[in-house]
Amino acid sequence: MRENRYLIGAVAFAVAAAVPLWGPSLGGDASTGTTDVHGAAAAEAHGAAGMASPATTGNASGADLDWQAMDRAMAERAKAFPAKTAGEGAQVLKPTILEDGTKQFTLTAGLVDWEVEPGKVVKAMAYNGMVPGPTLRVDVGDKVEVVLKNELPQSTVIHWHGIPVTNEMDGVADITQPPVPPGGSFTYKINADRQSVGWYHSHHNGSEQVGAGLWGAFVIGDLPLPGGAKADHEAIMQLQDSGAIGLTLNGKSFPATKPLEMKLGESMLIHYINAGSTPHPMHLHGVDQLVVAKDGFPLAQPYKADTVLVAPGERYSVLVVGTKRGSWGFHCHIFPHSEGSDGMFGMFTELRIS
Ligand SMILES: [Cu+2]
Average pLDDT for residues 32-50, to the nearest whole number? Predict the structure, then answer.
């Protein structure tokens, strides 16, 4: 009971602490929260005939733009996709194999400048210089060590979400271990004894550190698919909405998001991981999503959807078959997260079937 009280206290504190931090950033990048409100208010005040669309990325709200200017701005952004930026997140990290066969990974947490979209560079916290952090992939039965080195100016820890660990390896500051101070390190030992689609993230000053970039994917083994099917492609789509990184897919905002690509008739297994602070309904145009797993646990009865709601912390795995050629929109269906008066932004990409 005593531990429970601490936990409840910690959660209440985290929520209270998070509200002022997340308030302005939940709507998107720095310009979002304010222009959004201004746009709606301006439209009301002027009785504007046009829609007060949330101006999330540009300088003007919908009410301030004539329709040609709006169309031009939208076309320009769409044409820039997929835009080049410095840095690529979620790269698969190769382990060092220790003498006893243990797979050892090193994650170094530090400050980096991260380009989320062309010209927009934010002060991020990152593992090994990338956002999201490196993707860890191991086999069922592996013994795993992850060495956390802290080069941040504040303490940190790593929590393993959906990954089997003993209590002392759970990585929650002051609950299961002391925080790892600047300059310190800690080695996590994990027996990867079951298949999982998991992830890892900071559990110290989480409302700042996770949104600043301290998270990544951790996959154990292969997710079994209905009927023993094998997917031709596998992709991980990591969602973020808050903090320094803001509205992104795999650490990048449209037009710097990466299109997913497959050929007609091929299949792709896509794992959503929501590392953010709000749910995102992920909508794929043109082809169905077959939901095959929740939090890495295969579903007894997979089901079809065109929009899959992924809450913070959750993972959903969906199987997609390329039945129709084309560039299909693929985005969060909360439009203030993906499309405004100057076009697509944030959580928008394409599934390209050729
Ligand atoms: Cu969203």
Answer: 32
pTM of the model: 0.83
Q: Are strands 196-202 and 215-220 parallel, antiparallel or unpaired?
A: antiparallel
Ligand 1 centre distance from Cα of residue 95 (Å): 33
Paired residues of 144 in beta bridges? 103, 190
Q: How far is the CA of 6 from the centre of ligand 1 (A)?
A: 32
The helix-helix angle for 32-46 and 2-25 (nearest 10°) equals 60
Which pLDDT value is given to residue 12?
Answer: 41
**Token representation of residue 60:** 């003007």
- Report the separation in Å between the CA atom of 334 and the middle of ligand 1, taken as the mean of its atom positions: 5
Q: How far apart are CA 41 and CA 184, in angstroms?
A: 50
CA nearest neighbour of 337 among 327, 347, 328: 347
Residue 251 Cα to ligand 1 midpoint, Å, equals 14
Query: Ligand 1 centre from 255 Cα, in Å?
Result: 16
pLDDT at residue 81 greater than cutoff 60: yes
pLDDT of residue 135: 98
Domains (ranges, CATH) in the chain? 96-220 (2.60.40.420)
C-alpha 197/C-alpha 199 separation (Å) is 7
For the chain, the average pLDDT equals: 86
